[in-house]
Amino acid sequence: MARPRFLPDNFTLALVITVLLATFLPCEGQTAVVFGKVTYAAIALLFFLHGAKLSREAVIAGATHWRLHLLVFASTFILFPAMGFALKPILSPLVTPDLYLGVLFLCALPATVQSSIAFTSMARGNIPAAVCSASASSLIGIFLTPLLVSVLVVSHAGGASSWHSIIDIMVQLLLPFLAGQVARRWIGGWVERNKAMLRFVDQGSILLVVYTAFSEAVIQGLWHNTPVKALAGLLVVNGVLLALALFATRTAARKLGFNKEDEITIVFCGSKKSLASGIPMANVLFAGHAVGAIVLPLMLFHQVQLMVCAVLAQRYRHRPESPAAAKQTI
After folding, report:
1. Which residues cross the membrane (predicted)?
2. Which end of the chain has a smaller Cβ tally under 10 Å, C or N?
3. Residue 215 and residue 31: Cα distance in Å, rounded?
4. What are the structural domains, with CATH classification, of the chain?
C-alpha cells in the first residue's frame, strides 16, 4: 500500500510522537537521570562514529574552512542579537516583559552542538566543518554570551561562566571524535559499510535529546505557568526568528558561492540555539530573577528548531549526491 502524500516522513512522525510522549509521560526523578546518561552516551557514540568515518584530510579541510565558520559566527552572535533588538516593537506586544527578556537571552546564546551536527549529517552536508563550527560556537559562547546579555538586556551581578562547561564539551564531544579518528584505521571500513547504523545513531540521539529536554520543560510547568495568549505569541516570535535566520543563512551561503554541502552546514549551524548551554547560563546571569520565564522562549525555540530542521534535513537528504559530498567518505 502506497504511503499517503500528506503524511510526513517517518522521522518527523517520530519527533511528533516523542513530543507527545514527553508531554503526557515525561521522565522524572531517577528515570530522568537514566535517560540523561543514555543521551550522553548516545551523543558520545555519535561523535566517535563520525570520527571513525571521516578521513583525516576531510577533518583538516573542515577546520580550515574559515569563510564558512565566519558566516556561522556572524549569524549566531550578530544576526540573532540584531533581530531580537530590532524586532522589539513587533515582538513585545505578543509576549510578557519577562518572556521578551528571555527572547533577548535566546538571541545571545551559542549554537547547539549535537543537533547541528546530527542534522548536517542527515542532510549529507559538510560534517567536518559542522563539527568544528558548532563546537567553536559553543566554546566562544561561554565567554561572549554574558557580554551580549549585558549589552542587550541589563548588567546583572554574578560570576563568569565556569570552566566546567568547557571541560564537559571536550569530554562529551571532542574526545570521542578524536578517539574515532584514532580508531579509524581499524574500524573505518566497517563503519563505511554500515552507514545505516550511523543514521540510526544520528536520529536516535536527536529523539533522546527531544524527549529529555521536553520532559524537563513539562515538569517545570511549561503548559501551566504561561497564559495561553502569551504562549501563542511566543510561538509566533520563535517562528519569526527561526524563519528569518534560515532564510538569511541560506541566502548568504548562495550569494557568497558556497556549494550545497557548505550551505547545509551554514543553515543548520547558523540557525540553532543551545538549550544545554542556555539553562546553566541563565541560572548565573539571572540569579534572583524569574529564570523560568526567561528560559521558556529557549525551551520552545529548541523544540521548534528541531521539528523544522528535521523536515529541512530530509528534503536536503533526498537531493542527488554531488562530487563534494562523495569526497567526504573517501
Report:
1. 39-56, 68-87, 99-119, 131-157, 204-224, 230-248, 281-301
2. N
3. 11
4. 29-320 (1.20.1530.20)
Mean pLDDT of 9-28: 82
Residues 163, 95: Cα–Cα separation, whole Å? 34
Contacts of 321 (CB under 8 A, 6+ apart): 124
Q: Report H helices in 256-318.
A: 260-270, 275-285, 291-317
Burial class (CB in 10 A: 0-12, 13-18, 19+), 21: middle
Output the DSSP codes for 147-171.
HHHHHHS-----PPPPTHHHHHHII
SS (H, E, C) 189-209: HHHHHCHHHHHHHHHHHHHHH
Is the predicted pLDDT of residue 158 greater than 50, yes or no? no
Alpha helix locations (H) across 25-123?
30-53, 56-63, 66-74, 80-86, 88-91, 97-108, 114-122
How large is the C-alpha radius of gyration of the chain?
Answer: 19
Q: What is the DSSP track for 78-98?
A: IIHHHHHHHTHHHHGGGS-HH
Terminal Cα distance for the chain, rounded: 38
d(CA 87, CA 306): 23
Is the entire prediction scored with pTM above 0.85? Answer: no
User: Which one-letter amino acid corresponds to residue 164?
Assistant: H
114-128 exposure pattern, b = at least 16 Cβ within 10 A, e = fewer? bbbbbbbbbbbbbbb
In the structure, how many helices (H) and strands (E) does the chain have? 17, 0
CB burial of residue 199 (10 Å; 0-12, 13-18, 19+): middle
pLDDT band at 159 (very low <50, low <70, confident <90, very high): very low
Judged by DSSP in three states, 225 sits in coil
* Distance (Å) of CA 121 to CA 54, 118, 130: 11, 5, 9
In this predicted structure, the answer to whether residue 135 has a pLDDT above a threshold of 80 is no
Three-state DSSP class for residue 294: helix
